[in-house]
Design brief:
Blueprint (H helix, E strand, L loop, with lengths): L9 H19 L5 H11 L5 H26 L8 H12 L3 H25 L1 H8 L4 H19 L4 H15 L2 E2 L6 E2 L13 H18 L18 H6 L1 H16 L4 H17 L8 H24 L6 H12 L8 H4 L3 H31 L3 H18 L4 H19 L5 H23 L5 H7 L1 H18 L14
Antiparallel strand pairs: 1-2
Length: about 500
């Protein structure tokens, strides 16, 4: 029999803490994503009891979602795709000697985001689901389009066209391979390896990891991360200063988590972008508030993604799909009858998420100083180690040498893009969301082919609102901006 207090058993707490520590370390390594961690754990949980499998996987899930921020802030290489906005705002702070405080703020923001997700699961299930269920293929496609557009706008500074070019090149790369609706082969040029498309893990590692290595090697005097990281625990006053961004980012993370397929990739970029719009600052110059916006949304997305997964059986993200697979191994079928078939299991998961959140918070702070010492090693020692992890991370997903070749190719491309001041983040997001945009847009074209555009917009107000937001994003970025002094808040 499951119960809320069953999660507070000492053995359960120990398992959850081990899972959280494992998730943080795993996701901090380039290329080892949250999805990969969850997928590998599915088979390992077969021999466990259902309760231990649930608490271990949710602990790992919670830790891994934060873990990508460690390498993103300290060495400018996001451990997971979700940590790209954290990298853009946090790495300049590390170069300024505030890496410890930036990590401390990201940990605190992650904990706050997790609490927001837990509160959503407990209190707002019927209301939020009613909104999420109104999202059809059209709305999901428009949401992906907005995510790519806003990331391109926000990462290219005074030249938004560069950001859009980067994002749409990512979408083009995502269309390589056999498409899923009619099975048509696109842009494979006779290569069998490209039939299944271009995986985003080698792209991510190449564009950020290997490109960073090339960029550092090309500098006569490479930058270094100060080993004296200073204060780690952020003062309460600093946290309270960003309460508006915390509230906004929590909502963004929750809503995007509930929408199947959107995931934390959209949540972090949208939250980061909205934060820049509201503050009028450029987070990529180094800004604690940018770290807060990204990490709160990233972690609030956990609760949002679990909501449709548990209540409707529709995975809100790839990691939650792996979690559902683990549940099915133990005979737990999720859906509207989950509480009837397995009394108390939802309350047990609520307790598990609370334990996982606290365990992540404590483990993350315990791992800060070892992480800084590791990533502050001399560049001639650290870079070869990172290169080995880049190769291993690219190879691990499919065990294919072709993925390593892809990583090297995208590493060179990323190096050239940095030299040309073309942002890399939009391309990564385009690769990740391109397939979702493509498939859902074409499904919408089939569904609404007998209706006029105006009729579709009248019948689907959410789609009309998203189209308006996309137009405003494009037009607003092209309008001449007033000359003003941008203040960069670094937390001092």
């Amino acid at each position: 029999m499951y119960s809320f207090f069953g999660a507070f058993d000492p053995l359960m707490i120990l398992l959850c803490t081990c899972g959280a520590a494992l998730g943080i370390i795993w996701a901090a390594l380039p290329g080892l994503s949250t999805t990969m961690a969850m997928a590998l754990l599915v088979g390992l949980t077969y021999s466990m009891q259902a309760e231990t499998a649930i608490i271990f996987m949710l602990g790992t899930f919670t830790g891994a979602v934060f873990g990508g921020a460690v390498s993103a802030i300290l060495i400018n290489i996001p451990g997971t795709p979700d940590a790209v906005p954290t990298q853009m705002a946090g790495f300049p702070l590390a170069k300024q000697g505030q890496g410890g405080l930036a990590l401390g703020m990201s940990i605190t923001a992650s904990m706050i985001g997790n609490w927001a997700g837990i509160l959503l699961l407990v209190t707002c299930v019927p209301y939020i689901l009613d909104i999420a269920l109104k999202f059809s293929s059209l709305e999901v496609a428009l949401l992906a389009l907005w995510g790519i557009s806003i990331s391109g706008t926000l990462t290219a500074g005074e030249m938004p066209v560069k950001g859009w070019i980067s994002g749409w090149l990512g979408v083009l790369l995502a269309m390589v391979g056999r498409e899923e609706i009619y099975g048509v082969e696109r842009f494979i040029f006779g290569s069998r390896e490209l039939l299944l498309g271009i995986p985003y893990i080698p792209v991510l590692i190449g564009l950020f990891g290997l490109a960073e290595i090339f960029y550092v090697l090309a500098q006569p005097q490479p930058y270094g991360i100060p080993q004296k990281i200073g204060r780690v625990f952020p003062p309460v006053g600093m946290i309270l200063r960003y309460w508006k961004s915390i509230f906004r980012s929590s909502l963004v993370g929750l809503v995007t988590g509930i929408i199947p397929g959107a995931g934390a990739n959209v949540a972090t970029f949208v939250s980061y972008g909205i934060g820049e719009r509201f503050t009028g600052r450029v987070f990529s110059k180094g800004d604690m508030e940018g770290v807060v916006c990204s990490e709160v949304a990233n972690n609030a997305n956990i609760g949002g993604a679990l909501l449709p997964s548990l209540v409707l059986g529709i995975p809100g993200s790839a990691p939650t799909a792996a979690f559902l697979a683990a549940l099915s191994l133990h005979g737990i079928i999720v859906g509207p009858n989950i509480e009837t078939d397995h009394p108390g299991i939802l309350y047990f998961m609520y307790g598990t998420l609370i334990i996982a959140n606290v365990a992540m918070y404590l483990c993350a702070f315990a791992l800060i100083k070892p992480s800084v010492k590791l990533f502050s090693m001399p560049r001639e020692v650290l870079l070869p180690i990172i290169a080995i992890f880049c190769v291993a991370g690219s190879f691990t997903e499919k065990m294919a040498m072709f993925d390593i070749y892809l990583m090297f190719g995208f590493g060179l491309l990323g190096f050239l893009m940095r030299k040309a001041a073309v942002p890399i983040g939009p391309m990564v997001l385009g690769v990740i969301l391109g397939n979702m945009l493509d498939q859902n847009f074409r499904r919408a074209m089939v569904v609404f082919e007998r209706e006029s555009l105006w009729q579709v917009l009248i019948d689907r107000p959410i789609a009309a609102l998203l189209i308006l937001v996309i137009i405003v994003t494009f037009v607003g970025s092209l309008l001449p901006k007033k000359k003003k002094v941008l203040k960069v808040v670094s937390g001092k």
